[in-house]
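Incident log, structure service

09:12 report received: a user says their structure output differs between two submissions of the same chain.
09:20 pulled the input from the user's history:
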Amino acid sequence: MSAVTSNDELMRRVDWRLLDTRTQAQLLRRPAQLTSSTTANAVSSIIDEVRDSGDAALRSFGERFDGVAPADFAVSDAEFAQAESALSPELRAAIDEAAERIAAFHRAGMSAPYTVDTAPGVRCERVLRPIQRVGLYVPAGSAPLPSTALMLGVPARLAGCPDIALCTPPRRDGSADPAVLYAAKRCGIARVFKVGGAQAIAAMAYGTASIARCDKLFGPGNAYVTEAKRQVAMDVDGAAIDMPAGPSEVLVIADAGANAAFVAADLLSQAEHGPDSQVLLLSDDDALLDAVGEQLALQLAQLPRADIARRALQSSSAIRTGSIEQALDISNRYAPEHLILALRDARAALPRVTAAGSVFLGDWAPEALGDYCSGTNHVLPTSGAARFAGGLNVASFQVAITVQEVQPRGIEAIGPCAVELARAEGLDAHLQAVALRLQAVGS
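09:34 re-ran on a clean worker, output below:
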């Protein structure tokens, strides 16, 4: 029996049990995400020009890349009002509803300050402060993303960030997408700028006459935006970033009882993001794999973005495993951005999951709900980063500061400990800073 059981399917079909270790590792590789030197150099030039010429550079790049250079980058109150009136009542209600759920989830998970007396007279605290100036980037390439405005804006507001800027590419008529503007306003964001691409990242990182410099940048984007974020994060004069954002990905583990139509729809919902997205299906049941393959062909034929999804499926796989337990082990090794457990007892399998950005339990939890309105954040670690990082949350927009308050009896209680450790490390000034106080207390 061959390890590759079909070559003419939309997704490559393989049997994990028949693969050697090297082939298994290759199967779990993401599509190559090498930033070409051309892209890196182009982004570097854009950043340099924005730093040197500010708003003039933004207008030049806007004309070049977006086909429009707004006279005023900032969205006016009138534009916010027009955007709201342009949306259907149903869409406004959906954005409001999603915002409430996202806020409810993130509010429940917020970190809290705390105080503890670690010794008599020694009080240690952890206090939380919002990052003062944050920049949010909301793409509008093949489709506007008001959901991303919510996913970034809601936790920023809950964190209490006093200065929030949002950049989004202008449309051909010079306006910003109305749904993005309404979502931004729903999050209390008043400063929105019609600037896109790497130039927007540069503007928020270094500042221009129109756009104030930010301390930390958030949000996804294309290869140029991602490279710009990488470059400004590497620059001591630049800005911190939330996380490197790779192409979207999903891994589905399905048993014999799974609904093949649901599984195929979940795979396609990620494949349509872009040709460099990756989807994986793992199952211990051949009949389920066959049924999903049939559903993929049927559903793909109905999708407006079928060509994009088909290209993504070319670097994706349907994997036959020996058991669901083996599938869970493979998933932990892959560390997917999104993990769907289409299992009869998905909750029982959850303790086995050690690496995933977001998990969707059972047949009735499509990943698309997490993208929009279940309440969890859709800004998640990709490219295997879920092994060591989690998704965006309120803490991403805060800094934690520790505080120590020491009374005379406190220095008596713990000073000798510090003296001994300083002596062991040969740091005499450290020792002296404590010893002088011990002497003062003793006298």
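09:41 both user submissions now match this output. Likely a transient worker issue. Closing.
09:42 reviewer note: The first strand starts at residue 4 and ends at 6. The longest helix spans residues 89-108.
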